[in-house]
Amino acid sequence: MKPTLILSLAAALVLSACTMTATLTPVSGPLAGRPDIIVKVTDAAGQSGKLSFTMPSGEHVTGKYTTIPGQPVQGVATAHGDRGSVFDMQFTTNLFGKGFGEATDNHGNKYRLIIAG
Questions:
Q1: Residue 105: inside a domain, yes or no?
Q2: What share of the chain is helix, strand, coil (3-state, %, to 5)?
Q3: How many domains does the chain have?
Q4: What's the CATH code of the domain at 36?
């Protein structure tokens, strides 16, 4: 195998381990019944990282999360939108990064959080 191909494959594996997706599903409040919101989670291999997503209204939301090692892994996140929305999230994941949790925002919405791992 050529060295360039090996480096490309190694880089792809490292990048895929550092990024994952999660889904926010509105379950109650003004957005209940609206489509799921896809959350991009970066630096996912560490104990802290960043997240970002776009609301159905077009508001861009960014934030940070932290985890406490253990089995299961517990975590919290806070995110702020460019139009004033504030999100608080709590979640639990297994050793493979798959998990679940809940989130609320400052507009009275509650969300189910599913982490794909």
A1: yes
A2: 15, 55, 35
A3: 1
A4: 2.40.128.120
